[in-house]
TrEMBL record:
Name of the protein in question: Galactokinase
The species this protein was found in: Mucilaginibacter mali
Species lineage: Bacteria, Pseudomonadati, Bacteroidota, Sphingobacteriia, Sphingobacteriales
PROSITE patterns hit by this protein: GALACTOKINASE (PS00106), GHMP_KINASES_ATP (PS00627)
Cited NCBIfam families: gal_kin, PRK05322.1
Gene Ontology terms, MF aspect: ATP binding; galactokinase activity; magnesium ion binding
E.C. number(s) listed in UniProt: 2.7.1.6
Subcellular location per the Swiss-Prot or TrEMBL entry: Cytoplasm
Length: 393
């Protein structure tokens, strides 16, 4: 067992006065490239990261679910034989939603004592909510022999996010944390759910994840605005092209028909979408050939497009990329996620990571006025069962 798992088993014993019978882990995720194209029928390329959510579980005979997280002070106990509703801003809404879905599908569930611990920075855009949903769904599927496939667990978790919690998000997050593979990126079509695992051996590099620590106040309203602008571009292109989504065409076809788009801003949005979708294909090719220099160039090109054409960056994300370009140990960097704050990623030589983090911190703080958080990750596995404590007793 890793140090972290050993500590969690000790905490579980202390809390519940018995050992945990099973332990599970579900990662967070980052999107390596392919931003703001999922709602345009495009390709995204997320990967699982090496930190996430741990869940330790043992059954009880008291007809209740007990929830405790080491990230929060509160404990919750709820009866098994109840119908659950979302409550205000409580983290157990995510596991409650999962249990409710199991019940809706007619599965018998019984009492569990559950301990969660997450080392994903909450609110950073690294999918802590999807990680909680998927680890809970995977654990219940395992413990109650419910027979769901991994894809069904993904769709179940998306239902929790969209219906039980009420957030209109896509499927990429749950898919990446469930299907992630070590040293593989997932090139995923969010519409068809077809995907390809792309060899992504980072070699001497690590993935630096930089949380700007900026609150993303604009993200939701601007997100909806961008969706509408893309729909406007699609409608105009459909005058001559038989397409369902902007990403049904490549850059060459777009350039032949872009005169149909009459609004300059809408034209910029569509240009980003089509070119970014092409970049994902080029990035998959570069990674599979272990050409990290080309992949890094595509990361910078993606960020530039998101800043200039899609206008979803900001001084915080730009500061990370500006600094990265000055550091010879960085192959590439870009914002990741919806933008207006959240996270950036950079491909950094592992031997130079500590210096990168220190110098970036100084550069960013001087520019922005407060410090970022910088984490090092590899490309990790998706959700799974950790070894039971009994094997280590």
């Amino acid at each position: 067992m890793s140090n972290i798992t050993e500590k969690l088993h000790a905490e579980y014993q202390k809390l519940y006065n018995k050992p945990a019978e099973n332990a599970f882990f579900s990662p967070g995720r980052v999107n390596l490239i392919g931003e703001h194209i999922d709602y345009n029928g495009g390709l995204v390329m997320p990967c699982a990261i090496t930190f996430g959510t741990y869940l330790l579980v043992s059954p009880n005979n008291e007809g209740v679910f007990r929830f405790k997280s080491l990230n929060f002070d509160d404990h919750y106990t709820i009866p098994v034989n109840e119908s659950y509703q979302k409550e205000d801003t409580i983290w157990i809404n995510y596991p409650k939603g999962v249990i409710q879905h199991f019940k809706n599908d007619g599965h018998e569930v019984s009492g569990l004592d559950m301990l969660y611990f997450g080392n994903i920075p909450i609110g950073s855009g690294l999918s802590s909510s999807a990680s909680i949903e998927v680890v809970t769904a995977f654990a219940l599927n395992y413990l109650f022999n419910a027979g769901y496939t991994k894809l069904q667990l993904v769709l179940l978790s998306k239902w929790v996010e969209n219906v039980f919690i009420g957030l209109a998000s896509g499927i990429m997050d749950q898919f990446a944390v469930a299907f992630g593979e070590e040293n593989k990126a997932l090139m995923l079509n969010c519409e068809t759910l077809d995907y390809k695992a792309v060899d992504s051996n980072l070699g001497e590099y690590v993935l630096a994840i930089i949380n700007t620590n900026k609150l993303r106040k604009l993200a939701e309203s601007k997100y909806n605005e961008r969706v509408q602008e893309c729909q406007a571009a699609l409608k105009e292109l459909q005058q001559e092209l038989d397409i369902k989504n902007l990403c049904d065409i490549d850059t060459a076809t777009f350039n032949q028909h872009k005169h149909l788009i009459t609004d300059a801003t809408v034209l910029k949005r569509a240009q980003h979408v089509v070119e970014e979708n092409d970049r994902v294909k080029l990035a998959a090719d570069a990674l599979s050939k272990n050409n990290l220099a080309e992949f890094g160039r595509l990361m910078y090109a993606s960020h530039n497009s998101l800043r200039e054409l899609y206008e979803v960056s900001g001084k915080e994300l730009d500061a990370v990329v500006e600094y990265s370009k000055t550091n010879p140990n960085v192959a590439g960097a870009r914002m990741t996620g919806a933008g207006f704050g959240g996270c950036a990623i950079a491909l950094v030589k592992g031997s130079a990571f500590d210096t990168f983090a220190k110098e970036l911190n100084e550069y960013y703080t001087a520019k922005v006025g407060y410090a970022p958080d910088v984490y090092s990750s590899l490309i990790g596995d998706g959700v799974g069962l950790l070894k039971a404590v009994a094997e280590h007793a």
